[in-house]
C-alpha cells in the first residue's frame, strides 16, 4: 500500500504546489503497474484530501515548530490525516505506511518528524476550529463572496461543495426508464445509486451519458426544433451538444471549441452516441470572423468559460487553484464572448447564456451589462421551482435537489 500512498502524495503535490489540475495529475501519475483497486483508492484519497485540505493541513501544522520546507512531506502528512479523519484507516497503519512512502522517495530524514507529528495530530482531542477557512474548507475570499452574493444560501453552498457528488445520467428519451430516481422536472435526468451503477449494463455499454441534471436543463430551455440552425459555442466536452442532437436530430448544429484536445473529446462523445453535427469548428468564440459563414443562427448556446464555482464537489482542486483575481480575467472574457457571438443571431432568435458558477459577477451582472449596451436584446424570463430568480436569469444553488450550481439566462434578439 505504501506505493499507493506515494502516488497519491505525488498527485497532491502536483496539484497544490505545481498548480496542475487534479484530473491531469491523476492521469500523469497513475501508471500501468497499479491495480484497479489501488487506482480507485488513490483517486478517492486525493479527492477527499483536496476537499478538506485547509482543515487537514491545519491539524498537523500546529505540531511543527516552524513551517515545513519540504512540500512533498507536507502533502504526505495531509493525506495521512485524511485517512484518519475521513477514511477510517487504523492509526498504526497510517504512520507505518507514511514512513515507508517517505523512505521510497529517499526522504529517510523525515521518518522521525512524520512519526511525531502524526501521532500528536491523531490524538489531538482538543482540536479547535479557529477560522472560517478551517470550518468550511474554502479560501476566505470565496467564503466572503458567497456571503455577499447569497446571504441566505452561502452555508448550504459551502456544505454541498464538500460533499461527494451524486451520479446523474442522461437518457436519450424522456420515456426511457432507468434503475434510479427520475428528476421531477428534467425527465432525461436520472439519479443513480453509485453502487448499483457499476453493475448497470447500459452504463458499461455507454448507452447513455453521465451528466448532472443542472447541465441537462440547457437543452430543455433551448428546446431545439427540426430545421433550426444552432451554434454551441465553447462546446467541450460536448455533453450539451449531444443532448441537443438527442432531443432533435433534424437540427443543423455547429459545434465550436478552441482547444484541439478538448475538441477531440467532443468528437469522441458524438461518435460514441452515433450523433453527427453540421460543422465541428476549431475556433475562438472571441474571433467569429475566422469561422463564421455569414448565415445567422436561430439559436445559440453560450456556455462560457467560468470559475466553475458551482461544480467544486466534482473538482475540489478548484478551491486551491482558483484565486480571487482570476474572476477579473474571466468576467472580461465572458463579456467579450457574449459581445462577439450575439451579433451572429437572427432577429427573433434566442441565445442561452450559461455558467457552472454561483458568483453573481459571472452571471446576472454580466447580463445586466450586456443588456445595457445592447438594447436590441431582451430577456425571456425563465421559471423553475428549484431555481432562485435573479435580477436576470435563474440560479440553481449547489446541492438543491442534489444538483450542481448552474446559472441560465435566455435572451432574444428583438431588432
Percent in strands:
5-15%
Query: What integer value in Å does the Rg equal?
Result: 23 Å
N-to-C terminal Cα separation, in Å? Answer: 65 Å
CATH class of the largest domain: Alpha Beta
What is the domain tally? 3
- What percentage of residues falls in helices of 4 or more residues? 40-55%
Looking at CATH, which topology of the largest domain would you report? Answer: Rossmann fold
Q: How many β-strand runs? A: 13
- CATH architecture term of the largest domain: 3-Layer(aba) Sandwich
Label the overall shape.
elongated
Tell me the quaternary state.
single chain
The main sheet comes to: 9 strands, mixed
Q: Please, what is the average pLDDT?
A: 94
Unreliably modeled segments = none
Helical segment tally? 18
User: Structural class of the secondary elements?
Assistant: alpha/beta
What name goes with the CATH superfamily of the largest domain? Answer: Vaccinia Virus protein VP39
